[in-house]
Each structure stands twice: as structure tokens, then as C-alpha cells.
Specification:
The chain is of the alpha/beta class and 467 residues long. The chain contains 14 helices and 18 strands. The protein folds into 3 domains: 254 residues, FAD/NAD(P)-binding domain (3-Layer(bba) Sandwich), CATH 3.50.50; 127 residues, D-Amino Acid Oxidase, Chain A, domain 2, CATH 3.30.9; 52 residues, no CATH class. The strands form 4 sheets. The protein has an 8-stranded mixed sheet. Strands 7-2-1-11-17 form a 5-stranded parallel sheet, with helices on one face. It has a 3-stranded antiparallel sheet with strand order 8-9-10. A hairpin with a 4-residue loop joins β8 and β9. α2 packs parallel to α5, α10 runs antiparallel to α11 and α12 packs across α14. It is globular and about 65 Å long.
């Protein structure tokens, strides 16, 4: 059996997929956000017709959608996500750049822990843009697929026979509709009702796990001077020992000559809820680049968002399931958005879908091989995000037993990334979802982290102005 790290690397491949298409007639995707659109792109290789049913009215205007309340906040297209977008839509990177997305080289990316800047991690260029912009770019390319149809409607239920899902019921413009399906993919997000429909029909729902976060975000746009900035994107993460419930701050260059700046906190910590507080903190409490990003005038108002928890539905552990039913994106797992894993997880789920359908699966049986494959991605993202969340004072879930040892070793590795370029690169690959977190737990990585304890730590980068 392949290790989780090796399976993760295979899922993240950028090579053209191999294996015969599944030869389906009609498939239905529930939901048309990033996860649903990427699933539709993969399914277009396997089905004569792909139907996407999306509740929100989709237009050509780049704007946040009601169904994506977090769409107003900073979104990171991690390296893994960018690579998969280019894989499924060749030329995506160049097209997005031409439309306004900002290319960021490794030298333009600044990562700080408690104000100390980490060594540059040479992992390739990235694209920065707003979530609505990226989603529109993907949607335009999916609409060009001749066998994909998007319906504006609200899914109201699933149809089953004795062993499998057979179709989807929905409402559109006040009328009821029905779509028969050889395969149904749930991409309706963290509020998915598919579990309810399963239990109502006598099936077992996937068990739900929740990790309380109580994370608060405050985001605003600022004017960005023309030209290529020295630092085009930055993140300053604060450890619980340094920041308590103050998580940190991030900014990036986005389309239309703007900076997008976001500040986050846990529990009752709600930093940056006013423009005055956001600007003051960036200029006085964080490294100098953050102060410069807010120095050329705010555009509009500060927009806040709160997410109570991270959650995952463990489909791989579900009991009695119908055949021909899959789930992707936030309908499977949604994480604390501060880690930027959502869009890239959705892209990797699409890769899992491709691998599954090209493996010659028995679609008359529950799709357990798919859920087992997908679980490797979910476990990796979940481990990265929840470990940091649990240590916050407002959550206060200290690790126990073996978990405590793992947390201590992980903390030692993170601390060493400020002085060890090799570990900084490895850590960047993990947080960018290029490699599995297990690569940081090898004897070699732990030995480097142990040796780094004796290396003097750099001083934090000073803020733009004194408090």
C-alpha cells in the first residue's frame, strides 16, 4: 500500500490523466462554485452531458455571490491549486494574468512568523486575485465546454432505487425539475443537505467532525500604486505564545490596481473591524510592508466575516451508502480560511475524481475507493489547520499523549523555518499543498529543526511607524 505522502504526490500530479474515460451518459453536479466547476471540468471527459445546478444567478459581472459569503475575504490560490487549474485548463495562468491577476515571484512573497521573515522559498510563481475573479475565470472556461450545461436552480432532493442514486430534483423559477443521473456529485458546500436526504431515505450519513474556531476576519481594499511591487503578497502569522487570539494579517496585490488586506482573530478578538483600527495595526503592530500596503487610501468599507468552526464529513467512514454518489469541496471538508486551503483542496478533489473514474471503477457499488483517495487530501489539510487552531487561548484544547509529542515536534520545525532555508522550503511546500505534512516529520527534518535551536533568531522586522 502506498504511503499517504506518495499518494498525495500522485494526486497532485500535473501530467495528463491516463486510463480510459468512464463512458457515462448523464451526470449532475450540485453547486457551481469552484469545487463544482472543477468537478464539471473533469466529468466532461467522462460523460456525454454534464449538468451543473447552481442556486445563485450567474452573470458575467465579477462580484461576490450570496452562496459564497466568505468570497469578500482574502483568498489564496496555493501552488497546488494553481498547478491543477493549469492542468485542467491549459493556458489558465496566462489568461488570468491577461485579465488582471497578479503574478508573484518567490522573491515577492514575504512570510513572517511573529514578525520574523522566513528565508525565500523558491517554489515558483503564484497568482493573486480576488475569489470572485478566479471563480469567474474558471466559470468562463467551463461554459466553453460543449457538453456542460449550467441550470439556475435550487436542489431539493435526490432520487434513489434499492442500491443507488438515480436522479436529482430541483426548483427553478418556481417550477419543479428533475434530472436523471448516472452519477451525482455534491458540491453544495459546508451547509450541504445531502446527509439529511440520505438519512431520510434510509441510508447512513457520513459522520461529522467539528473543530471550534470562532475565527473573525476583517478585509478591506486599498489603492495600489502602478508598477511591480517589491513585495506583492505577504502573511504575518502570530503564534499563540506571541499573539494569543490575534491570528495575524495578510495582504496581496489583486486586479484593478488594488491591495486586499485581511486581519484575523479568534473568539472575542476582532481586530481591524474599523478602517482606523485596521490601518493603525498594520502600520504599528506588524512588519513594515503591511503598513505600506494601507498607505494609499482605502477603497470602500471594511467587510467582516465570522466562521464558527471547521468541519469535515468522513465519507470514507460512512456505513451504508448508495452507489453513484460522490462529494467534493466544502461539502466534504471546510477549514479555517486563514490557511487558504479551500480552493486548492477543491482542485485536488477534482484530481481524485479523475483518478477514480479512469481506474475502471464499479459504479454500481458505493464509491469507497474515491472517498479513500480523497481522504488523503482531507487528512493533510485538516492536520495542518486544526493543530494551530487548537492552541489558541479561546479554544484551549491542549494536546494529550502522543498528540502532545507531535505538537511539540511540529512547533520546533515551524520555529526553525526562520533560520533554516531547507526547512523553510519544505514548510512552504506543505502549506502550499504541494507535499504532504509527513515530509516535515522525517528524521532528517526533525534533526535539522533540533540543530536549528542553537542558531540565533533574526530580529522581527520593525513596523512602518512606532506605536
Amino acid at each position: 500500500m502506498a504511503s499517504a505522502a506518495r499518494t498525495f504526490a500522485t494526486i497532485g500530479s500535473v501530467e495528463p490523466p491516463t486510463g480510459a474515460p468512464a463512458g457515462l451518459d448523464r451526470v449532475v453536479v450540485l453547486g457551481g462554485s469552484m469545487a463544482g466547476l472543477l468537478a464539471a471540468r473533469v466529468l466532461a471527459d467522462h460523460a456525454a452531458t454534464v449538468v451543473v445546478i447552481e442556486r445563485d444567478t450567474l452573470t458575467d459581472v465579477v462580484a461576490p455571490r450570496r452562496g459564497v459569503p466568505q468570497g469578500t475575504q482574502v483568498h489564496a490560490l496555493l501552488q497546488a491549486g494553481g498547478r491543477q487549474l493549469e492542468r485542467w485548463f491549459p493556458g489558465f495562468d496566462a489568461g488570468a494574468r491577461a485579465a488582471g491577476a497578479q503574478p508573484i515571484s518567490p522573491q515577492q512573497w514575504a512570510s513572517y512568523t511573529d514578525g520574523v521573515r522566513k528565508p525565500v522559498a523558491p517554489i515558483g510563481d503564484a497568482l493573486t486575485a480576488t475569489r470572485p475573479f478566479l471563480e469567474q475565470q474558471v466559470r468562463e472556461r467551463v461554459r466553453e465546454l460543449p457538453n456542460v450545461k449550467i441550470i439556475n436552480g435550487r436542489v431539493t432532493g435526490l432520487d434513489f432505487n434499492a442500491t443507488e442514486v438515480t436522479g436529482v430534483r430541483y426548483e427553478s423559477d418556481g417550477d419543479g425539475g428533475h434530472e436523471p443521473a448516472d452519477l451525482v456529485v455534491d458540491a453544495t458546500g459546508r451547509a450541504s443537505k445531502v446527509s439529511d436526504w440520505l438519512t431520510a431515505a434510509g441510508w447512513d450519513a457520513p459522520p461529522m467532525t467539528r473543530q471550534i474556531t470562532g475565527i473573525n476576519y476583517a478585509t478591506a481594499f486599498f489603492r495600489r500604486p502602478p508598477g511591480r511591487p517589491d513585495i506583492g503578497a505577504a502573511l504575518c502569522a502570530l503564534t499563540p505564545a506571541k499573539g494569543g487570539d490575534l491570528a495575524g494579517v495578510a495582504f496581496s496585490a489583486v486586479e484593478n490596481d488594488r491591495w486586499i488586506v485581511m486581519m484575523g482573530g479568534y473568539g472575542t478578538c476582532r481586530p481591524g473591524e474599523t478602517a482606523e483600527d485596521l490601518i493603525r495595526r498594520c502600520r504599528q503592530d506588524f512588519p513594515e510592508p503591511f503598513g505600506r500596503a494601507v498607505s494609499h487610501g482605502i477603497i470602500g468599507d471594511v467587510i467582516t466575516y465570522r466562521q464558527a468552526d471547521s468541519r469535515r464529513r468522513d465519507w470514507a467512514k460512512a456505513g451504508r451508502l448508495p452507489a453513484r454518489l460522490l462529494a467534493v469541496g466544502d461539502a466534504v471538508a471546510s477549514f479555517n480560511p486563514i490557511y487558504g486551503q479551500g480552493m486548492s483542496s477543491a482542485a485536488l478533489h477534482a484530481s481524485c475524481l479523475s483518478m477514480f473514474l479512469r481506474s475502471g471503477p464499479d459504479l454500481t457499488a458505493p464509491a469507497r475507493p474515491f472517498f479513500d483517495l480523497q481522504q488523503v487530501v482531507v487528512d493533510a489539510a485538516w492536520a495542518t489547520s486544526t493543530a494551530g487552531d487548537r492552541a489558541r487561548p479561546s479554544i484551549n484544547l491542549p494536546p494529550r499523549g502522543l498528540e502532545r509529542v507531535r505538537a511539540s515536534l511540529a512547533g520546533m520545525v515551524v520555529e526553525a523555518t526562520t533560520v533554516d532555508p531547507v526547512l523553510a522550503l519544505g514548510f512552504a511546500k506543505v502549506t502550499q499543498m504541494i507535499e504532504h505534512p509527513a515530509v516535515l516529520a522525517t528524521p532528517g527534518s526533525l534533526w535539522r529543526a533540533w540543530r536549528a535551536r542553537s542558531v540565533p533568531r533574526p530580529r522581527p522586522v520593525p513596523p512602518l511607524e512606532a506605536a
